[in-house]
Amino acid sequence: MNKILNYGENSIFKEVFYLKINIHGGIKMANFKVDEIKGIIPAALTIFGKDEEIDEKGTRLYIDYLLKQGVDGLYLTGSTGEAFLMDLDERKKYVEIVVDEVGGRVPIIVHIGDIGTKKSIELAKHAYNTGADAISSVPPFYWQFGEENIFNYYFDIASSVPIPLIVYNIALAGILRLNIIKKISKIENVKGIKYTATTHDQISTIKDQVGQSFLVYSGCDEMAASGLINGADGIIGSFLSLMPELFIDIYNAIQNNDLATAKAKQKDVIRIIEYSLHYDYFSVIRLGLKWMGIPAGYSRRPFKSYNDEEEKIIKRGFLDLKERYHIQDVKFLDLL
Fold it and tell me: Are 8 and 126 members of one domain?
């Protein structure tokens, strides 16, 4: 059985924060410290076959493609990964495949959020034992939980494993106000927030009022440059899978104070995303990957997977977009 070393009351996270214990009872160092988890971090798709079952071969090819593009990490089984359309065993299986394929090359954040604390803790422990570098979670949703419920949810999860917890702030689950973010940030082991909202002044405010070491990841792809300008440590988003090169260019441009390049690249991102949102965009991302030779599989129902005729229409729309705005150096468009 897995055991967590305990060196005394309230000291567990200080003593074993960077230790992971494998199934044989041995100890190995974690691959990455939390302050190394920065930069361009795609929110990964889950690769399903036509039968809607996890496609291991396709998953490995997709993950290998992302790593070769130079991404700085991966965020698994979140909204983009269709986590809430999967059962716990499926979520665990996908994490195991990806961790094995990555082999410690980049940090991995596993989203373990669910509507119940018990299930989230089960996923958190699995992520930790599998080799994830951090976990993340949306707040509990559906029943419009109060601040005390939300605080306790994060406290219980953060206390269950010794790897960092990244809060996930997204409108789909309910945007957390600054006061509750500040309270949650005081929980030992809560080390950052994925901020998927357009109110980017709050990114700067979180940095000022919580602390510069509290990591903030911008989760709104359409405003990646804005998030970075306001102090985000990295970008986590869906479209980083489709066009990582654009987001890498934006990130590097901001780091080099090249705002003209960042602005131009961000405009291209917005145009591509706005067109994609006319459809089920997870499935559009899958098509774009397919056009680059990456088998990105199918989405799970009720999301739609597009047939050949629909695919032709979507492709024609992208070609029109490319020509109208003279979009260059975007791999999936260049291959159309």
Answer: no
